[in-house]
Every structure is written in structure tokens, then in C-alpha cells.
């Protein structure tokens, strides 16, 4: 009875003085909330009490609340001191080693959990236009249209209308991580693998599994056909309006 009374008195004094009592607590957090599929999730545990705590494992629950993964722990106890952190890493695989699907997941420990979302990256690949003059640089634009960082695809292949590969380039040397809204541009100078200019025609450019079709024309061949004749007096004759047996239309004189 005396021990109970003493404990109550101590608790009352603590409450009056504004002191707090340390409790066994381990906090959990992740390095961010949204991840691309396959991206490593960093999980940080922090000892928030005043004495060493035994390091515990974590587990991952899917949107239905089912445990889909937990790491294999060491066969002996580990401790982290007050204020210290310990990082775990999850590669987004389940117990079978398969990549988990898109969606929301909870990374849990006994004291709490951190909610994360896994999404597929969204990449848009396009050319600046569909028709190019001979010798004109073909611009291939890769844009991250998603919510998370994404790797720009690598490996450009150009084939002609006969299905023959005329140009290949491994853009892996220029590997880039694109942040949401960021874009990168690749250039094809209309030359084949031997460095010779390609001929006019239709070409298919493949990058990241996406096919884009461009047409290369001779600039002189698709120049405007509209023509006009300006005599000395300044009158303009529109030769596109000429019909057999009839003179060209005469607009008002601009002399």
C-alpha cells in the first residue's frame, strides 16, 4: 500500500511540474510518400525514449491490410541508443520476390506505421513535328508527365519504310532522371550509321518502346506552287488562275 501511495504521489508531482515520463517508443518514417514502381523505399526507425531500445523489424501491408513482406532479422538482438536512427530498405518486392502492384501500402512497426503510394512513371515521347526538310535536325522530346521521378528511356532506332534499320544510338551514356514536368531532347541529324545523309521518305523512330513516324521531303519538291508575275507597271498576274484559252486575271492596278 505504501508503494502505491508513493507512486501516486510521484506521478502527481511530475504532473504539477510539467515533466514528462519517457516511454518505450520507436518512431517510423520513410524518405518520401510517393515512389515509382521498383524504386527503393528507405525506412527509418528512431529511438525516441531515454534508454536503449531493442531494434525491431518492420512489415508491409497491402491496401487490403494483408502482410505482404517483412525482412529476415538477425538471430541476435540489436539495440539503438536514445536519439539514434536505423535504416531499413525495401525494394518493393513481396514474399515471392515479385514487384508489388500500384497502390497504397503501410510500412508498420509495433508503435505505428507510415503510409506510402507506389505509382507507375508516366513518360511522353514525341517529335517536334511530323514533316522535316532534308538535312533538318529531327527533335525527339521525352517528357516526364507523371507525379514521380522517372528514368528517360534509352536506345534510339530509326527504320525506313522497308523496315530496314538505318540508324541506332545507345543513349544510355546520356542516362537522365527526369523530375515531374522535366523534359530531355535527343537529336537525329538524318544520317545513317555510316554517317551518310538518308534519302527522302518515311521513317519510324523507336525509343522506349514507342514508335514515331516522320516524313523527310526534299524542300524544293514541296515548296509552294503558287506563282505570280509582276510587270513593270506593278500589275500582279496570278498564274494559278490561268485557264486554257483565257488570259490571267488582272487584279486592280497597283501602279
Could you give a quick summary of the protein structure above?
This protein has 255 residues and is mainly β. Helices cover 6% and strands 39% of the residues.
Order of helices and strands: HEEEEEEEEEEEEEEEEEEEEEE
The main β sheet shows up as: 5 strands, mixed
**What class would the helix/strand composition place it in?**
mainly beta
Instruction: Bin the helical content.
Output: under 10%
Shape: elongated
Low-confidence stretches: 1-23, 226-239
Q: Say how many strands there are.
A: 22
Give the strand order, joined by hyphens, for the main sheet. 2-10-9-5-6
Q: What distance separates the N and C termini?
A: 122 Å
Number of helices: 1
Strand content: 35-45%
What is the typical, i.e. mean, pLDDT? Answer: 81
Radius of gyration: 35 Å
What report would you give on this structure?
This protein is mainly β. The chain is built from one helix and 22 strands. The chain has one helix at 2-17; strands spanning 26-30, 34-36, 41-47, 53-54, 59-61, 67-69, 79-80, 85-90, 103-109, 112-119, 123-127, 131-133, 138-144, 150-151, 156-159, 165-169, 177-178, 183-188, 201-207, 210-217, 228-229, 237-238. The radius of gyration is 35 Å and the shape is elongated. The relative contact order is 0.12.
Amino acid at each position: 500500500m505504501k508503494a502505491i501511495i508513493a507512486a501516486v504521489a510521484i506521478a502527481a508531482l511530475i504532473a504539477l511540474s510539467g515533466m514528462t515520463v519517457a516511454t518505450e517508443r520507436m518512431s517510423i518514417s520513410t524518405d518520401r510518400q510517393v515512389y515509382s514502381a521498383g524504386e527503393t523505399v528507405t525506412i527509418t526507425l528512431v529511438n525516441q525514449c531515454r534508454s536503449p531500445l531493442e531494434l525491431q523489424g518492420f512489415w508491409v501491408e497491402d491496401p487490403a491490410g494483408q502482410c505482404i513482406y517483412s525482412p529476415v532479422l538477425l538471430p541476435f538482438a540489436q539495440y539503438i541508443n536514445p536519439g539514434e536512427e536505423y535504416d531499413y530498405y525495401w525494394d518493393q518486392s513481396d514474399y515471392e520476390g515479385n514487384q508489388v502492384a500500384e497502390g497504397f501500402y503501410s510500412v508498420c512497426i509495433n508503435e505505428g506505421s507510415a503510409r506510402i503510394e507506389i505509382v507507375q512513371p508516366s513518360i511522353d515521347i514525341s517529335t517536334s513535328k511530323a514533316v522535316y526538310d532534308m538535312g533538318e535536325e529531327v527533335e525527339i522530346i521525352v517528357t516526364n508527365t507523371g507525379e514521380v521521378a522517372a528514368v528517360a528511356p534509352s536506345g534510339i532506332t530509326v527504320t525506313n519504310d522497308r523496315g530496314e534499320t538505318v540508324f541506332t544510338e545507345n543513349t544510355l551514356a546520356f542516362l537522365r532522371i527526369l523530375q515531374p514536368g522535366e523534359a530531355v531532347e535527343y537529336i537525329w541529324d538524318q544520317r545513317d550509321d555510316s554517317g551518310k545523309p538518308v534519302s527522302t521518305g518515311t521513317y519510324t523512330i523507336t525509343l522506349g518502346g514507342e514508335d514515331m513516324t516522320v516524313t523527310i521531303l526534299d524542300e524544293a519538291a514541296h515548296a509552294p506552287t503558287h506563282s505570280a508575275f509582276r510587270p513593270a507597271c506593278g500589275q500582279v498576274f496570278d498564274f494559278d488562275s490561268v485557264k486554257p484559252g483565257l488570259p490571267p486575271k488582272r487584279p486592280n492596278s497597283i501602279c
